[in-house]
Amino acid sequence: MPTKSSASDHIVPDSERRGLIGALPRPVRPYASLIRLDRPIGAWLLFWPCAWSVVLAGPVRAQWLLILWLALGAWAMRSAGCVYNDIVDRDLDAKVERTRLRPLASGRVSLRGAWVLLVAMSLVGLAVLLQLTRTAQIVALASLALVAVYPFMKRITWWPQAWLGLVFSWGALVGWPAVTGEVGASAMLLYAGSVFWVIGYDTIYALQDKEDDALVGVKSSALALGVRARLGVAFCYAVALALWAASIWSVRPESVALLALLPAGLHLFWQVATLAQEDGADALAKFRSNRFAGFLIFLACLVVGTA
Questions:
Q1: Partner of 78 for a Cys bridge, out of 25, 43, 124, 280, CB 3.0 to 4.6 A?
Q2: Domain assignment of residue 11, yes or no
Q3: How many CB atoms lie within 10 A of CB 194?
Q4: What pTM was computed for the model?
Q5: 122 within some domain
Q6: Is residue 3 part of a domain?
Q7: pLDDT given at position 3
Q8: What is the pLDDT of residues 214-272, one digit of tens each?
Q9: Can you tell me the distance from the alpha carbon of 63 to that of 68, in angstroms, rounded to the nearest whole number?
Q10: Alpha helix locations (H) across the chain?
């Protein structure tokens, strides 16, 4: 007869048996999984638009502390977002192979415990908010309405990735006024470019779940585009680059400044050119590579902003 521990082992994912989470005390591990402590890619993708905006807005020498605060805020709010998303999606997650072992879906974390963790992460975000200028605070708070609605969008529209773009790009509108005290046209263009970037990379991410999403009735851009997913991603990336170029031009109207975007453009081209639409592992690898794409855009903004 199996023991109690062996009977429950099947609901514990391998990620909690090794690595960073595996090194934590056993009672803490499900909560660390809930905030995706071992998968920081989401925090990086939320952070990069903040950092782009800060370094493009002016000389970076006096802004490194601000960038660090925004990095902490990105991690805390992405963690809070993961918890909130899992609270809303706990029943759907239980029906999808890739997500059925998430702490709430598998019952390893109670709903009350998840809400407590959500409040804790939000308090960290509040501490970061208090470090910003008044305009940046107001802009940051305005994003909460978008965040609250996002988990429901995949039940409503075939393009939840577009809503995610509005949410995950918001840092571009926060970083700029945190430096200058106002939201300028350059920040708006940077934000718009990031929205299309997010739609592109999250469509790649959604390629992993096409079959499960179709079975449970969840909508996504990957399903909407079908065999044209690669073309759709290419279009989004091209629009993103054009908008980023316009943002850089508004700061430094010189052709040579646009060359700063060339490395990022080549990287995004590589993603599209080598994307295997039916290979979930390749889609995940391409999605994760956007952490590096974000870094390349950061370098472009840094060079232009400090020139």
A1: 43
A2: no
A3: 29
A4: 0.90
A5: yes
A6: no
A7: 38
A8: 777 788 999 999 999 999 999 999 999 999 999 999 999 999 999 999 999 999 999 99
A9: 9
A10: 4-8, 19-22, 29-34, 41-57, 64-88, 90-93, 111-129, 134-153, 160-168, 171-180, 185-206, 210-216, 221-225, 229-251, 255-258, 262-274, 280-288, 290-306
